[in-house]
């Protein structure tokens, strides 16, 4: 019970694997924009008492293993993370404002799964594997990536016992 969080009347451990993409999947989260996005997501999650256990910001998507307190709904937490980060990034980077002239950096929607069906270590390893490879590794090895079945996930979700 040492990993559990405590409130005045609650003991909880609510972890979610979240993924969302940039609008039109434009690869804009590289370099300074990606670093600033990482900082903003950390600040926003701290202000809402959320805990980021693992994360990866690729050029076109964000992946996080995050703990969200029970008094904050999942949809409210995602709305807060996506809305505040989008607003600040678009305000700080003129190139993003030009590309996303409708003031929407993130695509609508998100993918989420609770970490109860799969251990946290598997989620962390999966998210770590999704980090963008270094340029020299990419040149040496070619395409880097693992199939879902190498992490213990079924390839065909419709026929699995997990649904």
Instruction: State the end-to-end distance.
Output: 28 Å
Strand order of the largest sheet: 4-5-3-6
Q: Secondary-structure element sequence?
A: EEEHEEHHEHH
How many alpha or pi helices? Answer: 5
Largest sheet, in brief, is:
4 strands, antiparallel
* CATH homologous superfamily placement: Transposase IS200-like
What structural class do helix, strand and pairing data support?
A: alpha+beta
> How many strand units?
6
Strand content: 15-25%
Mean pLDDT: 82
- Compute the number of structural domains: 1
CATH topology: Alpha-Beta Plaits
Low-confidence stretches: 142-163
Question: Radius of gyration, Cα only, in angstroms?
Answer: 17 Å
Written description of the protein model:
This protein is of the alpha+beta class and 163 residues long. It has one domain: Transposase IS200-like (Alpha-Beta Plaits, 2-Layer Sandwich). The chain has helices spanning 31-47, 74-92, 94-99, 120-129, 135-141; strands spanning 5-6, 11-12, 15-21, 51-57, 61-67, 111-114. The strands form two sheets. The chain has a four-stranded antiparallel beta sheet with strand order 4-5-3-6, with helices on both faces. Strand 4 and strand 5 form a beta hairpin. 20% of the residues are buried. Residues 142-163 have low confidence and may be disordered.
